[in-house]
Amino acid sequence: MGPAELYLDLLKKSLTATLFASEPDHDQESQAQFLSGFVTHYIRGAALTMLPTVRLTHLQSCVLDVIDRSIPGDVIETGVWRGGATIFMRGIFKAFGVLDRSVWVADSFEGLPVPDAERFPLEAKAHAGPFMTKVCNHLAVSIDDVRRNFEAYGLLDEQVRFLKGWFEETLPNAPIERLAVMRLDGDLYESTRAALVNLYDRLSPGGYVIIDDYGEDSWTYCRQAVDEFRAQRGIADPLIKVDSRCYCWQRTC
Q: Which residues 6+ apart lie within 8 Å of 246 measured at CB?
């Protein structure tokens, strides 16, 4: 490994809090065991991202690929929690001297929106349940906390752009010209659809769409939002499995 690769490997371990501990197995069959480890490691722990290492490694490969092939555009994550994945993408730019791309950090910074109970009963039930309300606080992390996390890694600068607010309000008129990587982690149907509808046309051919919760079906309609959008737009690019929950595709046209 060269210096850049060593830095990114260390950054991944720090952001996932796996320097001295193991991360939860996101693919294990026991949901109860996973949730227990999830709370301990992420919600009550020091990790700045809920992404397992395999997803960060995949994200790294996507970002490096668009850099290597000069695919034009910035990178964005919609739904950032403590900011770990966006910090990592900024770290990639730093490690390889990329000065002409921005990292867009899009979130309400107030937690997840309330789903429509009639249209999305599974999401509404999860949103109102004790796990999301009492344990996770609806995944709310303030913009000031996320800024501090960037600062802690020495990565808060003019290449980091924040979009604060609900996606249907911030994304339509966001001052983003082109994107090379879209990482969508809004969890819910409407958040996922708002990101696709408002950002996909700005994605350069050869760029990537990463859907963090496509493989989830017990509490979210994220997959439905993606499948409907792909069908409506006639997108035939194959969906690629990252792990049991996360999928992506590369835009060909």
A: 55, 58, 210, 211, 212, 213, 214, 215
SS3 state at 82 = coil
Calpha distance 41→239 (Å, rounded): 29
Residue 208 φ then ψ, to 5°: -120, 145
Do residues 60 and 164 lie in contact, with contact meaning Cβ atoms separated by under 8 Å? Answer: no
**pLDDT over 70 at 223, yes or no:** yes
In the block, tokens 């309330």 appear at 114
pLDDT given at position 34: 79
Where b means 16+ CB within 10 Å and e means fewer, 117-140 reads eeebebbbebbeeeebeeebeebe
- List the beta bridge partners of residue 181: 75, 208
Both tokens of 121, joined, read 């009963």
Give the count of alpha carbons within 13 A of 96, CB side only.
17
54-66: pLDDT as tens digits: 999 999 999 999 9
Radius of gyration, CA atoms only, the chain:
17
Q: Where are the domains of the chain?
A: 51-250
Q: What is the C-alpha end-to-end distance of the chain, expressed in Å?
A: 34
pLDDT in tens, 104-156: 999 999 999 999 999 999 999 999 999 999 999 999 999 999 999 999 999 99
Which CATH class name applies to 51-250? alpha beta
CB-CB contact of 120 with 189 (8 Å): yes
